């Protein structure tokens, strides 16, 4: 899942991003509304965690732009105000969910995951395919009943492949969904991560390489 965090309190923004990355999400961070619009124009995000009171371009206007573009991106709006009228206004602008500050990080993560599920065809909470069972919420993976310990990026790549339900996913798509914008597009990190995944998942291999196209399970 690819997430954009837009928050002008840099310590909070960076803390949220770090936490979401530990949950196997690819996260980009910006600190004002103008930078958010620039990122949205060039990257596809599953979820935008959007502070409402932003400098340069207000969070409301960023949200309106997403709605205007007709993008499938979901918006979790953050605000320091807990007033009900503010929440209603934010939802009417086009936000999909609303979370007042201060918030518990576990709740933020749960809401981001729930919104991320809405950007794709509805799938069961626990994904199962080819003897693999993947639980995104618990961050658990089992292969034929055996638990498999995965690093965050390995988990992210496996989740993308599982959600594709047998269709081929290109290396570029994996790079976009599992890594942030600071990753070198010419890196071999996707190939290395897939090799590690194959080793950890064991035999028989379930991740198939489709020459010239990508990978599938």
UniProtKB/TrEMBL annotation:
Stored PROSITE patterns: OMPR_PHOB, RESPONSE_REGULATORY
Domain Response regulatory: 2-116
Cited Gene3D superfamilies: 3.40.50.2300, 6.10.250.690, Winged helix-like DNA-binding domain superfamily/Winged helix DNA-binding domain (1.10.10.10)
InterPro entries attached to this UniProt entry: CheY-like_superfamily, OmpR/PhoB-type_DNA-bd, Sig_transdc_resp-reg_receiver, WalR-like, WH-like_DNA-bd_sf
Cellular component terms (Gene Ontology): cytosol; protein-DNA complex
GO molecular function term, any single one: phosphorelay response regulator activity
Domain spans labelled OmpR/PhoB-type: 124-217
Assigned keywords, A-Z: DNA-binding, Phosphoprotein, Transcription, Transcription regulation, Two-component regulatory system
Residues of the DNA-binding region: 124-217
SUPFAM superfamilies recorded: CheY-like (SSF52172)
Modified residues (4-aspartylphosphate): 51
Superkingdom of origin: Bacteria
Gene Ontology BP, a term: regulation of DNA-templated transcription
Function in brief: Member of the two-component regulatory system CutS/CutR, involved in the regulation of copper metabolism. CutR suppresses a defective melC1 gene, encoding a putative copper-transfer gene, probably by altering copper metabolism.
Name of the protein in question: Transcriptional regulatory protein CutR
Organism: Streptomyces noursei
């Amino acid at each position: 899942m690819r997430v954009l965090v837009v928050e002008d309190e840099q310590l909070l923004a960076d803390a949220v991003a770090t936490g979401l990355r530990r949950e196997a999400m690819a996260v980009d961070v910006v600190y004002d509304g103008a930078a958010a619009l620039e990122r949205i124009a060039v990257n596809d995000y599953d979820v935008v965690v959007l502070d409402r009171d932003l400098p340069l371009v207000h969070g409301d206007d960023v949200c309106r732009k997403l709605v205007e573009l007709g993008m499938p991106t979901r918006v979790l709006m953050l605000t320091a105000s807990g007033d009900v009228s503010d929440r209603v206004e934010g939802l009417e602008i086009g936000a999909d969910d609303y979370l007042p500050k201060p918030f518990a990080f576990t709740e933020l993560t749960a809401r981001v995951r729930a919104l991320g599920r809405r950007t794709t065809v509805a799938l069961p909470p626990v994904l199962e395919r080819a003897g693999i069972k993947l639980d995104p919420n618990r961050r658990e993976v089992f292969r034929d009943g055996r638990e498999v310990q995965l690093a965050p990026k390995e988990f992210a790549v496996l989740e993308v492949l599982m959600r594709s339900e047998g269709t081929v996913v290109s290396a570029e798509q994996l790079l976009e969904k599992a890594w942030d914008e600071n990753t070198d597009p010419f890196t071999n990190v996707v190939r290395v991560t897939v090799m590690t995944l194959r080793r950890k998942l064991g035999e028989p291999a379930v991740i198939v390489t489709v020459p010239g196209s990508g990978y599938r399970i």
